[in-house]
Amino acid sequence: MRGLRLALALAALALLTALGGWLATTYRWVKVPTWQGYRGQAATNPFLALQRFSVRMGHPATCLHGLPDLARLPVQDTLVLPRRRVAPDEAQARAVAAWVDRGGTLILEGLEPETEGAPRTRDPLFRPFSLRLLPARDPDATGLLKARIQGTEVTLYTGQGLRLRFTGKGDPTGAATSEGTQAIQINRGAGEVYAFTRLDWLANSALGERDHAEAFSLMALRAPEAGEAPHRVWIVAWEGRPGLAAWLWRNARPLLLAGLALAALVLWARAARFGPMAEAQPPGGRRFLEHLDAAGQWHWRREDGRPLLQACRAAFLRRLAQVHPGWAGLDPDALCQRLARHAGLDEAKVFQALRYDTAEDPDSFLEAIRTLETLRKQL
């Protein structure tokens, strides 16, 4: 029986060895890179690449939560409104249009497509510029757009299924595919408006493709005039300001987790315990000296030992009246001198023990008690 088990074990080992050898000769290990997603700031900011590209090109750039204060925004700057999902109110739309009239450069995309026969656009931000976002004529188009910006021809991927229409007066510059117009440049007042069906080509994953970075540079990163500071780029990466909880989770996650863990520990420590009640410990006896020590400690903490000192002094004076009745009628100074000579003690110590109501510190208190005890024994 033992030999059969050994033979089976050797056969299994040989089979596994043969299988391992076949796998090693038939297949080979190859490392294949896989996309793990963005990390760090790029995981939360979809336009971080656009911001850093602008900075590398010599133009300061800032990613914002919501629209900036347009009354203070310099007119030589550029405002980018990508990935719009929330329509601004009428006051904000008028402020944006007024800023463009003063000389600002606006780059924006449509909000959502609407029907052809709608009386007016539902997008308050498109309304001042006579723009509308409509469904595409040819949804099967490639989405590639060839446009001319500042005299340079660029190729962009603007997506599929949408088109723009200009309903105002004049003839603005536009670029179209078989789907319809995908981009429109409008000169309004002293400023410019670049409208697109979608601005996803400015996101982190698409900025480096085709001519996307060059197109943005032609629109927003123009060289300043002599003696003028570089133009700043404002990117509304998030349409609304985050709540306190979202802001803490994004910027102070370790601190927030530590606080939650501490709160959980505190609640656990203060929570009621479950299970059988522990047996009460039998009361232990204490010595009489321990009670005296506890009483003395309590009196000292409460009134600096004043009741103890007064009780010892009263007991001594009663004993003095019994043993030497004639001394009890002496004035305090004469009594202190008589007792000091009688007991052989320093007159100052006797005076302190008989006249002071409180002791300055524990050592003075003990010295007064010792003096009274010595005087009592010498009577």
What's the CATH C level of the largest domain? Alpha Beta
Principal-axis shape:
elongated
Span of the ends, CA to CA: 107 Å
Percentage of β-strand residues: 15-25%
What's the layout of helices and strands?
Elements: H1 2-26, H2 41-44, H3 48-56, E1 61-65, E2 78-81, H4 90-101, E3 105-109, E4 131-135, E5 144-149, E6 152-157, E7 162-166, E8 173-177, E9 180-188, E10 191-196, H5 212-220, E11 233-238, H6 244-251, H7 253-270, H8 288-303, H9 306-323, H10 332-343, H11 347-355, H12 362-378
Parallel strand pairs: 1-11, 2-3, 2-11, 3-10
Antiparallel strand pairs: 4-7, 5-6, 8-9, 9-10
Helix pairs in contact: 9-12, 10-11, 11-12
Pfam families: DUF4350 (PF14258)
Protein name: DUF4350 domain-containing protein
Can you give keywords for this protein?
alpha/beta; 2 domains; Rossmann fold; two-stranded antiparallel sheet; seven-stranded mixed sheet
Description of the molecule:
- It is a single chain.
- By secondary structure, the protein is an alpha/beta fold.
- The chain has 2 domains: 41-241, Rossmann fold; 290-378, no CATH class.
- It contains 12 helices and 11 strands.
- The chain has a 7-stranded mixed beta sheet with strand order 1-11-2-3-10-9-8, with helices on both faces. It has a two-stranded antiparallel ribbon with strand order 4-7.
- α9 packs parallel to α12 (362-378), α10 (332-343) crosses α11 (347-355) and α11 crosses α12 (362-378).
- The longest helix is centred in the N-terminal third of the chain and has 25 residues, at 2-26.
- The radius of gyration is 46 Å and the shape is elongated.
